[in-house]
Amino acid sequence: MGRLAVNAKRHKVSLTEADSADAFLCLLEGVHSSTGKKAVLLIDEYDSPIIKLVERERPAYDERLLVKTRVVIREFYSKIKSAEEHIEFAFITGVTKFSRMGMFFLLNNLNDISIRPEFASFMGYSQKELEDNFAPFILNIVGKRGKSEKDLLDAIRDYYDGFSFDGKTMLYCPFSILSFFADAQILHSWWAIRQLLDGIWV
């Protein structure tokens, strides 16, 4: 409820519901009413709560907790369905597709673009995007290291190019690229490190 309350205050919306899912619906309705604009709903890693529970080793794995989590998620998505008139569009991402867990049972108007060829380059950086959009960062590193731009691009390609949805279009993983340019330009397997830390802190 914390973030909902903060955003409700920012938009001068009064949350009259105690339940998180109902409060979220109340926030969507209130913002639409006060601004006249529908919300764009972005949900990243929708599958994360389920994956973290499933990956636990016994006896930490608790099927009852898994069932409860699934129910909470399903109720949340049912609220989204009932709030269609207040939402311009929703974009949901995840690594694993849980098609038989009933989480999207009521949210039945989703358009799955996971493996559609026209969206193959949608979720990553192409070679041209890397070279065009990160040119200042690339030149800065070249100047500091005294190596050629080609050598640097080859090294970046060796580490981070290989992200693909259709098996043909190769992309750079955004998380890895951004981590590389942000963290002292050290070539690491940033995505693997993040997954390891996520596993440690589950």
Could you outline the blueprint of secondary structure elements for this entry?
Elements lengths: L1 H9 L9 H16 L3 E5 L4 H7 L8 H20 L4 E6 L34 H7 L1 H11 L3 H12 E3 L7 E2 L1 H9 L7 H11 L2
Parallel strand pairs: 1-2
Antiparallel strand pairs: 3-4
Helix pairs in contact: 2-4, 3-4
Keywords:
single chain, 202 residues, mainly alpha, 2 domains, two-stranded parallel sheet, two-stranded antiparallel ribbon, 9 helices, 4 strands, 50% helix, 8% strand, globular, disordered C terminus
Structural class: mainly alpha
Q: How many H/I helical runs?
A: 9
Number of domains: 2
As a percent range, the share of strand residues is 5-15%
Q: Please compute the radius of gyration using only Cα atoms.
A: 21 Å
- Large-scale geometry: globular
Description:
The chain has helices at 2-10, 20-35, 48-54, 63-82, 127-133, 135-145, 149-160, 174-182, 190-200, and strands at 39-43, 87-92, 161-163, 171-172. The protein folds into 2 domains: 2-115, no CATH class; 119-200, no CATH class. With 202 residues, it is mostly helical. The chain is globular, with a radius of gyration of 21 Å. Strand 3 and strand 4 (171-172) form a beta hairpin. Helix 3 (48-54) runs antiparallel to helix 4. It has 9 helices and 4 strands, in the order H-H-E-H-H-E-H-H-H-E-E-H-H. The strands form 2 sheets. It has a two-stranded parallel sheet. The chain has a two-stranded antiparallel sheet with strand order 3-4.
